[in-house]
Amino acid sequence: MRDTAEDPRAEGAEAVAAARPARRGHAVVPALRSGGAALRRRFRAGELGSFPVVLVLATVWITFQSLNANFLSPRNLSNLSVDIVGTGMIAVGLVFVLLLGELDLSVGSVSGLAAAIFAVLNVTNGVPEWIALVAAVLAGTAAGAVQGYSCAKTRVPAFVLTLAGLLTWNGVMLAVLGTNGTVSLDENGLVAELTSYYFTDDAVAYGLAAVCAAAVFTVSYLDRRRRVGAGMPHRSLRHIGVRTGGLAVIAFGSAYLLNRFQGLPLALLIFLVVVAGLDIVLRHTRYGRQVYALGGGVEAARRASLNVTAIQTAVLAVSGTMAAVGGLFLASRITSVSQSSGSGLLLLNAIAAAVIGGTSLFGGRGTTWSAVLGMLVIQSISSGMAITDTPTAVQFVITGGVLFAAVVIDALARRSQEAHGRA
């Protein structure tokens, strides 16, 4: 048989075929195949992204919706969007600590301490709300900074030192509250309205959805242009368009459902703004790159002349600040502060949210949005259990199972990355 590689007629036919415009249907199939192959390569390399947690969240929602048609009702979803904020704020701060491969066990106590300081200053001593609020947040910042500086200087693992902080700050909170024990907040006050105020105008929710979609497209496009200019791998415009379109559908669908109840909750708006802002800090600033670098190895960071002490201090300060903010939102939800504030399952839920959302326990991988996704999973399970009258024991088992699966996936993903030389 004649070799077509040497046949001029075959070469001419190939040239004609290459010059002929491809039909639309013929162009889509190869694109889908190449996209699927790229996805499989990422999975084999351990780069799972947010796919596992999104799959879990979808499964949870479908399951509870099939058990009770009110689960995805506008009222329940609105309540869910507010319920995730308090613990979610704390989880976002923990993401910074986990990126270093460390763990902050004091966040629950710090959140309770901040709420107690606010309540005593404002309610008991008559200090204006905004001054008491600032003082409470700064107290959380100071507590975190002290712990971070101590960890950096003594080189004691953060989980050991913050375990001492858990006991210390809880004791300080009890001392601040004194014999009274419980302080009720003004139900019409600034802090109470953090979780009770809703934007009833439909345009606010739809406007936020449009801003989110536009921001994602702009950031992705500018990142693509920067990478193209530097000759680096980059996403295609089609990929950016599909990603933005998918987010727009979710954002506008959520806005529609929220508007069917009471509108956009102020708590959710603040939460999304804080998460987006801290995500920019982590992924688009020098400080953020230093945090990821330190998570890759402390000694390597020291040899690279990074100020490890300053970075660790700042990271624990961020964790303490977010714990204080979360504590204020939790106090706002029940309009009171008591000796049990910051205790119970708060710490475990915050850690679980960050890990379930995709933040690696080994450090160096994760984003602030990981905490949002993880918190959605945990609170969805809790809400679904409540709406279906399922025993609390089952809720603990399911949440624990999801957390175990997240840890296993994290370990397997890291092992796969090491095998491919990417860890």
Descriptive report:
Helix content is 75%, strand content 2%. It is mostly helical and 423 residues long. The protein has a single domain, classed as ABC transporter involved in vitamin B12 uptake, BtuC (Orthogonal Bundle), CATH 1.10.3470. The chain has helices at residues 8-19, 24-44, 51-67, 74-99, 107-124, 129-154, 158-177, 193-196, 202-230, 237-259, 266-284, 286-295, 298-303, 308-334, 346-356, 368-387, 392-419; strands at 183-184, 198-199, 264-265, 336-337.
CATH class: Mainly Alpha
Major sheet characteristics: 2 strands, antiparallel
Shape, per Cα inertia axes:
globular
Average of the residue pLDDT scores: 85
Could you tell me the strand content as a percent range?
Answer: under 5%
CATH topology descriptor: ABC transporter involved in vitamin B12 uptake, BtuC
- Termini distance? 50 Å
Quick take:
The chain is mainly α and 423 residues long. The protein has helices at residues 8-19, 24-44, 51-67, 74-99, 107-124, 129-154, 158-177, 193-196, 202-230, 237-259, 266-284, 286-295, 298-303, 308-334, 346-356, 368-387, 392-419, and strands at 183-184, 198-199, 264-265, 336-337.
